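TASK: fixed-backbone design
INPUT:
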């Protein structure tokens, strides 16, 4: 319940006297202010210089002068007592000088009903009010604690049948949810005002007897009479209930040691009282100061026992009892100072609400039962009698399992759903089935690929491919070409021709897919064009190649040359075919280039010849002269025929030269494509070989060189050193750059590597 902030209610009660000092104690008509006028050294009136009059004004909740016990209860206590019945903790406390009327106020006369004090009136009120509140069941327990010289005394222990605890056996403790309480202090259930009063008086009696027996003054102790109330609603079937504690505290007298002149036992008592009241005051000061986090409650038994009764969630009221006589003015002043400090303490009263777990369970069970009945009624109305709401039995779960299995196999068309529980169980069965299937496939894959823990990537790739295919039956088809290649290669040693014709199953697949795909004649296919980026290329390669890996075994590993041959007809057939096609085009272009070059050179020779003839004719200067050329007399025409011929020849030369230049550019480009295809073929072969046979690096270098030596057309594509990887990288980068430069002529000595005929040099035109 929401707490609301309030102040501690502080009232001053002036003990009736025939010698009330009106000069010193001035009660203002507002009923809340009392002014004290005090001559500091009033005991020495002869010293007029020292006897200065000082005044203090105290603003309190109420000044109670000449008020009856009844009025005091009504004005001060009723609200707190009724609050306790609503679940608020309450504390009513009397503080003041010895004999100022604390016990009179708190307990009153035990002989006169009219003079009875707060406690009997509170008990009466509690039981009367309980009788009125018929909707609630109350239970009331009482305890009566005395604190004497820091010793806890149970004033009602005599009523217990249990073995009496020693005073030192009681201890102030705090527990979460229960707050502060005295462990060992007896709690007595009471069902009527009378029973309660019996206990009060019993306690009073014990207090007096105890003080006699122990030779101590009964007024030299603090007493805390506590009414414990618990209230539960009779009408509302809720598990909530409220509890409260009503503490009625009669504090020991608060006079100064020096004033009483006490000695011995009395001195000791006074010392304890002063100490505990001083700690009480410190606690009050700390409570009043909102900036302070720590309140020193544990300094004394009194403050510790009153920890949750002074501030906190409690309705707290203090009655400060004072004398009205001038002789007690200093003690009165001291009491009022304490009272005004107490006025500063703020509290946040809140109902102590609890949940009864047993009642809560009962309530929930009842709710469930009712809801089931409601559902059953509803199902009857909508003609659904088979619905069940209980947890599924073993037999029912087995039936669901069977249904799901039949559904997955296809022998059951649908699973009829009749309850949420059943839906959950069906889903659980599906989940189980998927997990089982996964395990099965995993085991199958492990068996197929001989996977080891360290080779997670191969497994992931296998799973990926399996997912793509979506069927466990395809697992066999996923067998790596390496595995099959191994098998096949061993077979190939017996049947070479068969290998050439058929290839491995995977190779066949690849060939089929390659034949289906659109091939560009001279240009690299789109993928190859893009494959200038090595990553794209390798990704593509990985996607299309089988994922299986086998641990490297030199004995079972085919030679690089064998593997390369197999690769060209299988896995690398596509790129190999493109390479071949590009090479054919290159040869054709080279041939054309050669032809053109020869043509041009012929034209050049003709030009030279014609030029020479014209020059001779011009030198002799005659007309119709004959020149002997190649043994034949040739008439030299003096007209412009030779000049015309020369002009035509030169034009032809230029025209053929233009064509030749274009063809040469084409040859260069074709050469570039052929190189690219070669690098690609070898690069893919290396990847495939590495993945298929897990060849160690050093082994790979040797095998690569060997393979390349035995490569296609016995061409030496790579230099004879072992740094093939570096070479491939450099070559690849160069190709990229060359592609970017497009038709730019490249100076290369291709004949040294390709074995092609050297192109004839083109003769310059003068
Ligand atoms: N308001 C009052 N009306 C009538 N009598 C009173 C009143 N206040 C106190 N008395 C009387 O004064 C006497 C001392 O009062 P009381 O014992 O209550 O003082 P006290 O403060 O409890 O002292 P102590 O600290 O010694 O217990 C008692 O005889 C009591 O009847």
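OUTPUT:
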């Amino acid at each position: 319940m929401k707490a609301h902030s309030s102040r501690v209610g502080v009232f001053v009660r002036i003990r009736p006297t025939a010698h009330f000092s009106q000069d010193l104690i001035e009660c203002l008509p507002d009923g809340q202010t009392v002014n004290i006028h005090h001559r500091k050294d009033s005991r020495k009136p002869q010293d007029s210089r020292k006897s200065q009059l000082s005044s203090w004004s105290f603003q309190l909740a109420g000044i109670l002068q000449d008020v009856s016990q009844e009025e005091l209860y009504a004005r001060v206590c009723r609200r707190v007592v009724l609050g306790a019945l609503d679940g608020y903790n309450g504390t009513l406390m009397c503080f003041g000088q010895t004999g100022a009327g604390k016990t009179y106020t708190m307990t009153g006369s035990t002989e006169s009903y009219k003079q009875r004090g707060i406690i009997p009136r509170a008990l009466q009120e509690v039981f009367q009010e309980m009788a009125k509140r018929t909707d609630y069941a109350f239970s009331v327990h009482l305890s009566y604690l005395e604190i004497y010289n820091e010793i806890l005394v149970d004033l009602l222990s005599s009523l217990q049948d249990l073995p009496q605890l020693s005073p030192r056996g009681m201890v102030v403790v705090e527990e979460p949810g229960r707050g502060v309480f005295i462990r060992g202090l007896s709690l007595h259930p009471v069902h009527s005002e009378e029973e309660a009063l019996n206990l009060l008086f019993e306690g009073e009696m014990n207090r007096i007897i105890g003080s006699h027996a122990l030779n101590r003054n009964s007024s030299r102790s603090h007493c805390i009479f506590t009414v414990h109330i618990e209230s539960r609603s009779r009408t509302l079937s809720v598990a909530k209930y409220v509890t409260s504690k009503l503490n009625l505290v009669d504090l020991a007298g608060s006079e100064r040691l020096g004033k009483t002149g006490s000695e011995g036992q009395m001195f000791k008592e006074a010392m304890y009282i002063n100490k505990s009241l001083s700690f009480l005051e410190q606690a009050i000061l700390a409570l009043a100061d909102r900036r302070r986090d720590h309140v020193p409650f544990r300094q004394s038994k009194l403050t510790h026992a009153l920890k949750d009764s002074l501030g906190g969630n409690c309705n707290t009221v203090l009655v400060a009892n004072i004398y009205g006589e001038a002789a007690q003015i200093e003690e009165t002043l001291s009491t009022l100072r304490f009272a005004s400090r107490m006025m500063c303490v703020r509290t946040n009263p809140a109902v102590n609400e609890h949940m009864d777990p047993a009642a809560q369970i009962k309530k929930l069970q009842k709710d469930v039962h009712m809801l089931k009945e409601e559902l059953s009624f509803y199902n009857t109305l909508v003609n659904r009698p088979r619905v069940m709401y209980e947890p599924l039995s073993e037999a029912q779960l087995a039936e669901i399992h069977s249904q799901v299995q039949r559904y997955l196999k296809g022998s059951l068309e649908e699973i009829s759903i009749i309850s949420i529980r059943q839906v959950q169980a069906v889903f659980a069965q599906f989940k189980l089935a998927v997990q089982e299937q996964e395990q099965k496939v995993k085991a199958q894959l492990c068996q197929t690929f001989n996977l080891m823990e360290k080779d997670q990537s191969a497994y992931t790739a296998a799973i990926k491919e399996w997912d793509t295919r979506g069927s466990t039956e395809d697992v066999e088809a996923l067998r790596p070409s390496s595995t099959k290649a191994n098998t096949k290669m061993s077979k190939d040693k017996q049947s070479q021709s068969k290998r050439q014709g058929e290839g491995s199953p995977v190779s066949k697949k690849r060939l089929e897919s390659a034949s289906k795909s659109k091939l560009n004649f001279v240009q690299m296919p789109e993928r190859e064009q893009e494959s200038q980026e090595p990553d794209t290329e390798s990704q593509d390669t990985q996607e299309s190649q089988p994922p299986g890996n086998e641990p490297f075994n030199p004995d079972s590993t085919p030679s690089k040359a064998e593997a390369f041959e197999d690769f060209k007809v299988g896995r690398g057939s596509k790129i190999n075919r493109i390479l071949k096609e590009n090479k054919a085009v290159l040869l054709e272009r080279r041939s054309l280039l050669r032809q053109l070059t020869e043509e041009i050179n012929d034209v050049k020779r003709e030009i030279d010849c014609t030029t020479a003839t014209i020059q001779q004719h011009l030198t002799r200067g005659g007309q119709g002269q004959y020149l002997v050329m190649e043994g034949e007399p040739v008439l030299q025409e003096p007209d412009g025929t030779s000049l015309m011929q020369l002009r035509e020849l030169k034009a032809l030369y230029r025209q053929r030269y233009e064509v030749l230049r274009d063809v040469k550019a084409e040859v260069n480009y074709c050469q570039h494509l052929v190189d690219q295809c070669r690098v690609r073929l070898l690069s893919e072969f290396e990847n495939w070989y590495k993945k298929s046979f897990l060849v160690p690096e050093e082994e790979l270098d040797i095998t690569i060189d060997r393979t390349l030596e035995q490569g296609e057309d016995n061409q030496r594509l790579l230099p004879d050193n072992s740094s093939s990887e570096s070479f491939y990288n450099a070559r690849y980068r160069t190709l990229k750059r060359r592609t970017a430069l497009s038709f730019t002529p490249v100076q290369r000595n291709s004949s040294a590597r390709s074995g092609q005929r050297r192109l004839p040099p083109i003769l310059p035109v003068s």
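COMMENT: The chain has a mean pLDDT of 73.
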